[in-house]
Amino acid sequence: MADEIIYLGNHYQDPGSIKSKVDVYLTLNCNKVSEQQLDEGEFIKYIEVPYDLALELLDTDRYLQKEYNLSKTSSIKKRVK
Labelling 31: which of 37, 58, 67, 69 has CA 20 to 30 A away? Predict the structure, then answer.
C-alpha cells in the first residue's frame, strides 16, 4: 500500500528489440502487505530508494535532458512534492 502514486512517464526499454513501452511510477510511503501475485507473463520490478536519493536521481534526469537536449518523451511528467 502507498500513500501516493505518481506517474513519471514511459519509455522503450530497448527500441531495437522491444516494441512495448515501460511505464514508470514513483510511490511514496509504501508498506509491504503481501508478496506479489502477478499474472502469467507480468513483470513488476520495484526498487526501494531513500527520498533524498530519489530527488537526486530526478535532478540528474533533468540535467541530462537539458545538457544533452534529450527527447521530452523521457521527461518527468509530475514533480514530486
Answer: 58
Residue 79 lies in a domain: no
> Residue 20: inside a domain, yes or no?
yes
Domain count, the chain: 1
Residue 80 inside a domain? The answer is: no
Assign residue 50 a region: left if phi > 0, alpha if psi is -120 to 50, beta otherwise? Answer: beta
Q: Which residues span the domain enclosing 22?
A: 2-74
Q: Rounded to the nearest 5°, which phi and psi values hold at 56?
A: -65, -40
First to last CA, the chain: 19
Per residue in 30-79, pLDDT tens? Answer: 888 888 889 998 888 877 888 788 788 777 767 667 766 655 544 444 44
* 31 touches 1 (CB < 8 A): yes
